[in-house]
Known about the structure:
heterodimer, A: 3% strand, elongated, B: mainly alpha, 77% helix, TGA_domain (chain B), DOG1 domain-containing protein (chain B)
Amino acid sequence: MARKFVIEECGDEIDGISEKFQCLALHKNQTAKRVEEFLLENQSLWRQEQKNRAAKLEKQLKVRWELEELIEEQLNRFHAHYCRAMVPTQLKDVARLLMPKWPPQELASLTWLGDWRPSAMLNLVHGLACSSLSLTSYLSESDSMGNKQLLSQLIHEMRIEEAILDEEMAEIQATCILHIPFNPINNSSSGSALGCIHSEFKKIEHVITKAQNLRFKALELVVKKVLSQTDAAEFLVTFEGIQDVIHQYAANQRFQKGPVTVSAKVSKCT
Amino acid sequence: MLKALFARKKSSRPFKDYHSEWFNTLKNTLLPLLRSSISDSVPTLFTHVEMLHQHFQSYYEALDLAASHDVSQLLFPYWRNSLEKPFLWLGDLHPYLFTNLLRSFLEDTDEEEETDDEFNADVVRENYKYLFGKPWEVAMAWKNPSRNLTTRVDQIECGLRLMVPALVDRVRNAQAGLVERVAEDWVRYQGRKEAARPVIVEAVEAKMEEMVSVFLDANRMRRSVLAEIISATSVYQGALFLEGLAQFLVGLRDPQLLAQFESCQMPLNKPSRIAL
């Protein structure tokens, strides 16, 4: 009962106050509304900003995914090129793969068994990493010393693998005279010349195939193990760019120099 | 400058033509001369051995001279056929090929000596069938080779085992140096091809100078191995050695064989046998 009275009394009191401050309340209502509006607006702005920023991030992420996809795609292309398209299937392919129709100065500058030397691909990363402006994340990482050691180790290992193939190839080149029976002494026992050539070229085919796999292995190591995604992309761009500059120069040299000549005086054969 | 260019053109000719003429002289003149001297054992044999040896020496001299014009074309000679190209090492025959050929003659002798004890009549008859009509000196050229010769071959091979890997390393180091230098230049010019071009060209030219030096050293090695073999062997041994070498070169350019080679459809990467 007493409680009811208090409430009623309070209610009257509140009513009284509200009447007294009717004008003020009206004013207050408007302010609250404005504050609310302001808050709403602010919140909406904030949401909008968040949305924009998320969209930007999403865009960047998409770019990154696209970059990742592009790198993956390029690696797949290199794999198809080195390990499927550029392996000899017939006798005449062997010479074409060992001495492709690139300008000769490009061949002499860059190639080993017909294409880029695998360890030179790693040397390219080393050269880029040694220049302070490039491969920034590669250099700025706290363990960049560790990365450099890893790279040196990989170059060393790649050179060992190349040396093994160099020796296999040298063995073929040094003993072909014994296996191909142009000599009447061998002719009776060793079968037809073409058959013997086929078996020698088969050995060379093994060497070329291993060399192509090694090239892809070097490229895959650089892109997947040694470098970050952005650096890998930068590496692939540089790889193409440098080859293009050397190719253009070599083609120009071939045109300017013409066929290699020798002094007529010293070249009498008889 | 144009005048100098014309002067050069006038006093020089394509190496391809030189090589073709050199090869024809080998095939049509010197090898038949040597063969007829071998079979007749005429006193001219010594002269013909020396002529053929000099023919090889002059070829390497011509290669050296042409290297100053453009070593890259000599390292990757477009005038060689598809059968020859895979067997080229730094632009020509691998120096081990010379010593292996010599070893094959010496080892044939070892095998014969082993069978001598049992006197395998068939083997002797086989050999004499091939050597039929050839003078005794030629037939016996590789019988009991002097200790001096075998020691000399060991020494030559020992030298090659040191020099060949060193040359291979120089080629590899030159390539590594070029790529690293070019990468640094590339970064310095922030990947702008036009700006980077002059320094990259400079790096490639420096690399070519090193390749000239490597090529001259490879030829020096080939020349000296040949000269040492000829000086260490008797005239009959030298004649048979040079005949084998020349026959190999002629065989690789045999038009009939080359036509069969070019049209051969037998796959390389599957186990197969050629029945011919």
